Amino acid sequence: MNLDSPAAVALIAAAVSVASTLLTIRATAKTNRSAAVQTQFQEIIKKRIEHYPELWKIHIRYETNWTLAKQPKTREWAEQYVQSLNEFNLEGGVFFSQPLYLKFVELRYHLYLAIETTEPGEQVTPQLAAQIRQSVYGGPGYGPGMSTHAKADLGSYQTTSLAQREKMRTWRT
Fold first, then answer.
1. Exposure of 125 by Cβ count < 10 A (0-12 exposed, 13-18 middle, 19+ buried)?
2. Cα–Cα distance, 62 to 60 (Å, whole number)
3. What is the mean pLDDT of each run of 10 residues along the chain (173 residues)?
4. Are 155 and 45 in contact (CB under 8 A)?
5. pLDDT at site 29
6. Which of 48, 99, 114, 141 could in theory staple to 78 by disulfide, Cβ–Cβ 3.0 to 4.6 A?
7. From CA 102, how far away is CA 22, in angstroms rounded?
8. What is the pLDDT of residue 40?
9. What is the rounded distance in angstroms from the CA atom of residue 30 to the CA atom of residue 34?
10. 144 and 154 Cβ atoms separated by less than 8 Å
11. Would you give the distance in Å from CA 67 to the centre of its chain?
């Protein structure tokens, strides 16, 4: 085949045009998909902003304030705490990130264990009460708790993360 012939030139031009069109379609599809994912994520963040304050109130009520008031953590406390979490989970749980959900499951497990192993009117063992608190707030040698994951889900740590990346980028240049 003579590459200088008008037919060969037209064939090459057509092949380049088809390839270019396919690349454009692929890039457009990727951009559209990315935009759709971004929109969906924004909607999830809005729902988290709407629901997570209620989760925070539950933890403040049954963990922080209960501890500060030196109220005994009894079987009844565990029952009330898990009931509040379960009610929240009916609508707000669907917006949990996976790390937050895993801590939620862990917290519920410890609360149900407290209910099963504590007699009515008796206090939850100090070890189990500590495990419940760790599930919520984390701790040294344990890692982050639900509160850390909830804040991360809302972007509370994003600014710090971006600032650290910018600092590292500036430092290297």
1. middle
2. 6
3. 71 77 75 69 86 94 96 98 97 92 97 98 97 94 91 74 49 51
4. yes
5. 66
6. 114
7. 43
8. 73
9. 6
10. no
11. 26
* pLDDT value of position 8: 72
What tokens were used for 133?
A: 């608190």
Q: How far apart are CA 125 and CA 113, in angstroms?
A: 11
Tell me what pLDDT residue 155 has: 83
Phi and psi for 155 in degrees, rounded to 5? 90, 10
* Continuous segment of H or E residues that includes residue 88: helix 75-92
Looking at residue 161, its pLDDT comes to 44
Largest interatomic CA distance in the chain: 96
What pLDDT is attached to residue 3? Answer: 64
Sequence-separated (6 or more) residues with CB below 8 Å from residue 124: 73, 74, 75, 77, 78, 114, 118, 132
Using an 8 Å Cβ cutoff, are 82 and 108 in contact? yes
